[in-house]
# Entry
Amino acid sequence: MNSIKTMRWVLIRPLNRSLFYDPEIQEPLGLEYLSATLKKSGCQVLLLDSALNNLHDIKLARRVASFQPDAIGFSITTDRELESVNAIYTTCKEILHDKQLFWIAGGNYATSEFNNACKVLPTEMHILKYEGEVSIKKICSLWMDGLIDTLPRVIHGEPAVLDELPFPERPYHHYVLNFGFAFNVQGSRGCCSACKYCASKGMRGGKLYSWRGRSPENMVSELAYLYQNYGARSFNFVDEDFLGPPAGALERSERFMNEIKKHNLKITIGIQVRPNSLSEKIIDNLYASGLTYVFMGIESDNPEDFKKWGRSFCKDTWQLVDCLQQRGIEINAGTLLFHPDCTFEGIRNFSVRLRQYGLLNSRTATNRLDAMPGSFFYEQYFSEHPEDKTQGVIRLPFKNPDIEPFFQIVREVLAPIEIPSMHALCIMPIIQTGRVFENLEEKYQLLKSINSDCDDQVSSCFFSVLEMFENDCYSRPEIDSMINNNIEFGKITMDRLIKSGFHENLSHSSTNLFG
# Structure
């Protein structure tokens, strides 16, 4: 009997040399979906993540070469990963110089900046725009038939039927469980909105597919699978828009809740949601399903801003925030306090409201509207500045030039608080899960106290600097004093996190794992 040769794939998430601090590393869910799809098609797959596998570029390339792959695929999120991609590619070429390989790159960068991707990535590397599951199966068929050379350089991916996809592979489940992180789950793709600063619209691939949701039954089947096979109890839905169109949000939440009850799952979940998809009844349904954490888009409190951004304004936002907080659901707010049209009056009004609801922290106090690659504002910028060769996010200027120095001073003053504050924010979902399953109420209240102290410090400094600029009484000695005080505050707060056992859940533990 003749054996059928199977295609050997290596899927890689390269190292992201980001300038931003983030103590938590997420599992590569997109590659895990592709790995499951390939294995279902009979392929052999090695999935490597530079950070999670603790492999620098050369070692990772050697691991790739030892697998003797037929195809190597990269998931590239931003241009900050190109250095890693090129190093891995060059080393693999040196080691496997006489082996015919199929190279492909997908992900956010390949989709939203594909013109740049075509220029800077090796010419033999194919560029896969949009979703990859349907296309990668076709690539395998062409390879088996000896027709792989017929593929164009740029491949336009097709939207998959989400309920028909196999559940993603979970090669990093030990890492997730070891640190008490939530398992990432995708319940939908796309977004009902088309914000002019966001890349979501450019990531769709087809104008008819703005948002597609998995059925609640299919989603909960995966949660039950992870619960039964890995003991997973905490889940983070990475959807841009968990509930989807507001008209169907109530039914979706009810079906989800009923499936959770049907499978008798006692779990915690986190979601990302738009305010205009919520209601008190929907919040109750999700709370009964285990909702403990929400990332909620509260970009502004000015309806005129939403019009300029192509967004619908929700007048009930603050009532919904109150409703969530009354049920003990933690809110991580997505804000745009700084944007091209902002004024000192608007900044004060919005920051006061954020402070009122405990949502003014080191991140929300410094977040700024930038033009994301693939967005309307991004394309508009380059149509007006065709000579600009910038890659990545475009920083849009403020119409009021006095806002820029204010923004820079706020960033400078709050920088010493950022690391301990980010640690406290990132550990909150973990402690919330422990509060539900391990009776960690005391630790939860302690972490809430640390978070509150960080927010108090942020607010005190933020409003002091704002008053200086409002009254044109800028004082460099006073700024330097605030910075020095915040350095000491940051040290004290980090000591509190360490002594309370919170720090070891993140950087301290990752030091043990990664060396």
User: Anything to note?
Assistant: Residues 505-515 have pLDDT under 50 and may be disordered. Residues 342 and 398 are 7 Å apart (CA to CA). The longest strand covers residues 291-297.
